[in-house]
Structure formats: structure tokens, C-alpha cells
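so ive been stuck on this for like two days lol. basically i have the seq below and the ligand is pyridoxal-5'-phosphate, smiles is in there too. i just want the complex predicted, nothing fancy, no docking runs or whatever. if the output looks off dont worry ill sanity check it later, just need somthing to start from for the group meeting slides
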Amino acid sequence: MNRIQNKLSEKKQHAGKAGKLLSIYFTAGYPKLDDTVEILQQLEKNGVDMVEIGLPFSDPLADGPTIQESSQLALKNGMTTEILFQQLKDVRKTVSIPLIIMGYFNPILQYGIEGFCKKCAEVGIDGLILPDLPLSEYKEHYHEIFKKYNLINVFLVTPQTSDDRIRQIDTASDGFIYLVSSSSVTGNSDGFDENQENYFSRVASMQLKNPLIVGFGIKDATTFKQATSKTKGAIIGSAFIKTLARDGKSGISNFIASIREV
Amino acid sequence: MNYNVNEKGYYGDFGGAYIPEMLYPNVEELRQNYLKVMGEESFQKEFRQLLKEYVGRPTPLYFAKRLSEKYNTKIYLKREDLCHTGAHKVNNTIGQILMAKRLGKTRIIAETGAGQHGVATATVCALMGLECIIFMGEVDIKRQAPNVARMKMLGAKVVPATSGSKTLKDATNEAIRDWINNPVDTHYIIGSVVGPHPYPDMVARFQSVISEEIKTQLCEKEDRENPDFVAACVGGGSNAAGAFYHYLDNLDVGLIAVEAAGKGIDSGESAATSALGKVGIIHGSKTLLMQTADGQITEPYSISAGLDYPGVGPMHANLFTSGRGEFISITDDKAMKAGLELCKLEGIIPAIESSHALAIFEMRKFKKNDVVVVNLSGRGDKDLDTFIKYFNL
Ligand SMILES: Cc1ncc(COP(=O)(O)O)c(C=O)c1O
């Protein structure tokens, strides 16, 4: 089994708060080029269950200003795919939670898909989230390669995704489904209302084989709790990046603690 | 070989729809409906009527006598510069606004670089009374003040794109993000044969009126449907796609795609995607694009704002790699001279984009009896400032 699957079944054993998975997204190479591993270590130490490492891209279509800026800065700092793999070379000596790379398809295409997947397996990456790799292309061209390297591909579902398509995505997934909280790019911080809660309930009631983890727009304990009341967990990105921008790495433990309280 | 799009949305290896799931319902709605809608008699009737009475089509196919004498071949100019709003862009925006209305959309967004597509979109939104939001790079807003004013006069809201390099590719990113944020009531009018399938095909079909007319007009003038060559400049590739469309599979017709070399292909300041690009994904399409070895998209350069896009549409990527198209790149300098030459020889002030296509006669020989149609995609009014500075007029 893959670390993501292990973590999810471990969470299943717990009821209530302890059963909810907290995942953090950050952009590799931000705020400083060499921060990647230390941020990962601190996240694990502070009780984060899973991490999405953002591979920065010049044109992040699905991201709002916060992640756009962190990506630009990371690129300016000199982050590349090759450097990220070098940084992660020994990460599994000190970090054991599941690690996912989240990025756009073009840099991976340039690296070479198979070479990229092989490297991921070597350094201990467990899964990929590639928002602009569509379901049909994945199934036709990439599923076999991902499987060969034991990488779980995570698909997004949005409030506009039809039930039919949610079922197709469920069939093609073998980790979790990334439930995008609202029709929005990342970093929208309006909070959640009954629209979101109805949508979480609607998808939760579909009895899918994959657990649901909510992302986009989760920024604090309240939104985390709302997002996870019907689902298995939630992912925080922009709010964490803002914390890094404001307080640096020393802000990590307070931020994580603030999410877990209530 | 078939050089048009296949049922999966690919031209050879290029095309497809590499879009985040948030865009899937919109793009899928369009994919499922565009051919059906375009095939409806009422749609065709309205489209044709607007092209005729509002845009001013058919545009003339003009035999450029003095230019032909100078280059010792037969040169015809397809006068898209005479379209309402001054360029071919409006053929597409008329088509797409009718599509948007048929799909029940009430809010229109578009990207623009130089402002030509923004003006063409603002124009049709005014015509139809629809809300219009144009994304334009902050840098371009400063460079293209008259077009910004035009858009505002036409009732559009111009939103500066402040991300990335603050030019056309970033304006496109912002338009796509806006579409993600407004998934129900909004239609995105893309300005060229780029973006996810079905956009390249839909835009090419709307622009195909150009080659449809060339065929009829050439029959009248030369008693033949097919020229020996059709030449057009390529930014994203929409005027070229329209001029090539009905000749794509007719191998007797040479297709010449003219890209902007900027200050020279090896200068680091160029927009010649076929020479400098590699296969990748940009704005939802697998195509050729200029990028770093690490897959970061780079900023192109051309003196003509309409040609500085870091990619080309998937149709053109396929024309290039298959060898069906002949790709020529033209420097700023050669384009400016060719533009001024057309003024002096024919009394026509061309857009700098179109001037690139006119510069091919300095670059390659044609036979005396060759019939060469150059798509004169736009007029030069918008470029007067650049001409004035360049030639110290
Ligand atoms: C007059 C003119 N020609 C050509 C272009 C380039 O676009 P495309 O390659 O889509 O025809 C533009 C774009 O703004 C334009 O304004």
C-alpha cells in the first residue's frame, strides 16, 4: 500500500476530530529556495497528516494571487524540477507522512513523464495532483506509468461537476477525491455558507469508494471544521503561504495549532 | 493526411483540452453544442447577415499591381483591413457572441494584447447589449492607450492583468481565472485559434469565411479557385487559419505562415514560436510554445503587439511539424519596411502584424506566374505611433 492509502485507513479508525485529516500545501522554493525540507519536517512535527509540495509554474491557471506570487518568487529564487528532487533526495530519512507533488502539467512534460514518475518514486513521493491533466488523457496515456511507480493521481471535483462525472472520477481514483470547495481559484477567503455545506453533503451522500478531502478557501479552524463535518479532511494552501510570508517558518507551529483547536 | 481537427480535438499530436476540472463543465458545454449551433439555419442566417451588413463583407480581393511589378509575381491582397474595427478579429467575435447568446450566457470576458481583439469583443457586446469585461496586461494598457479608450467608449470594463509579466499571456490567464470564478453565466471569447478544444476549431470555422471568399473571388479574377500560395502572419494564428482553411487539404496550394522574429531569432527577443518553441501545454492546448528547459513559459517579443504570443495554435503546430506549412520569420526591421512599402506602392497603411506577411517577398522568390494571396489582416491606424517613432516621421 501507498502512504496516502495507509494514512486514510489509519484515520478511519478514529472518530471525531482525530479522524479528520489535515493537509498543507506550500510552494517549493518559497520563501527561500532551500526551505523545502525544513518546512516538511516542521509540518510533520506539528501534527500535519499529509503535505502537498507545490512545484512552481510560471502560469498557474487555477491559482489566486497568493499562490501566484509564491510561485513567482520560488522561480525567482531558482527553483526547478531538478532542484526539488535534489532537495527531496533524503527526505524519507526524516519525514514519514504522505507527500504529494502538486503542479501543472507542462514542467512535468518537459522533464519527461516517465523520468518524473521514476524520480518521484525514488525520493518517496506518494501521489500527484495535476489540475490541468484531464481525466481522459490520464486514462488513455498516463495511468499505467503512474501505477508502475506506485503514484496515486488525485482528481478534482467542483460544485459544477455532474454526478455522472463524479462517478467516473471515483472509478479512476484510488486515493482520495479533492473536493474543490467553491467555483473559484485558490485563495478565496469568503468563508463557507449553506451552498458549500449542501454541496459537501450532496457529494458525501453519493457513497463513493474514495474519501473526500476538501480544498480551496480553508483558512482557519472554523472553515476547517465546516469543510470536514461531512468529509474526511481538508487542505490548506493560501492561508499557510500567507503565514509563511508574515511569520516565516517560526509561524508554522502556531498556525497548525490554531487549525486543530475548537 | 487530413490537416483539420479530428473528433478528439487534435490536429495530429496537437490540441486537446488540458484544463483544470473547474473549467470542464463550460468547455464541455461548448464542445457538445458548437457544431450543432453553428449548423442551425437561423444561426447561419444571422451570422452571414451581420458579416455582410455590420462587418462589411465580403472584403475585396485586391490585385496589387505595383507591388506585383516590383516583385515580379502576381500578388493579391485579401483586404481584412477593411473590416469594421480594422481587422479580421471581428469575424470571430461576431460568431462567438451569437454562440454565447444561443448558450444563454449574459456576461462576456476576453483577453487582449494590442487591444484589437478587445475592441472587436467590446464592439459586439455593445451590439448585443451584453456585459463585457476585457483583461489586458498592465504593461499593454500603458502601450495601447487609444484601444483602451475605444473599449471604454464601447462600454467595456478593462481590467488590468497584474500577474506574471503583465502582458497578453497573463491577460489570458486572468480571463481563464475569471471563467473559473464565474462558471454559469459567462462566455469566454478567445481571440485566436488557441486554448482548449473546441476553441481552435470554432475560431478557425468563424474565420474560414476569409478563404471561402478568396475561392470565389479568385475565380472571378483568375478563373481558378486555388492560388499557388496563401501567406498570413501568425500570432495565435486566427487570420492564418481563416485564410488557409479551405486549402488545408489541397496540396497544390502552398501555405506560408509568417512569424515575428522580433530583433532576430537568436537575439533572445523574438516571437518565432516554430523556430524557438517546444511541445508543451499553454492555455489548455498541447502545442508548440516558447519555454525554458524547465517548462516555464517565457515572454516573447515583437514590435507588433498582436504577434507576441509565446505559442501558436495547434493547427499551426501541426502544419509546421508535418511540413505542410512553410514557416518564415520576419524581423521587426523587415516588417516595418514592408509596411511602409505598401503605403508608398499601393496607398494602403497596413497593421504591423500584417506587414510581417508582406515582407516575405524580400525573403523568398516566387515565379512570375505564381498567384500569391497575402492576407492583409488589419489596418495600421492603431500602429501610427510605432511607425512615427520608427521612421522619425
Ligand atoms: C491586425 C492583426 N493581425 C494579426 C493578429 C494576430 O492574431 P492571429 O494570429 O490570431 O491572426 C492580430 C492580433 O491582435 C492583429 O490585430
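The first helix of chain B runs from residue 24 to 39. Chain B has a mean pLDDT of 97.
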